[in-house]
Amino acid sequence: MENEMSTWFEPAAAAGDRARPAPELAAELAGGPWPLPAELWRALVAAGAGAAERLALAPELVADAALEPRHDRDAVCIVAEVCRRLGVLQRSGDEITVAGLLREHQVVARHRKVLRRWLDMLAEEGIVTRQGEVYRAVRPLAGPLPTDAQIDGSRLTYYGDNLLAVLKGESHPLEFYLAGGSSKDVEAGYRELPVFRYCNGIAGALLAAQVAALPPGRRFRLLEVGAGTGGTTASLLPLLPPERTVYVFTDVSRFFTELGARKLRDVPFVRYRELDLDRDPVSQGLPAGCCDWLVAAHVLHATRNVRATLAHVRRLLAKGGVLLLLEETRFQRKYHFTMGFLPGFDHFEDYGLRPSHPLLSAAQWSAALRAAGFAEVAALTPAGSAAEVMGMDVLIARAGA
Question: Is the pLDDT of residue 76 over 80?
Answer without folding.
Answer: yes
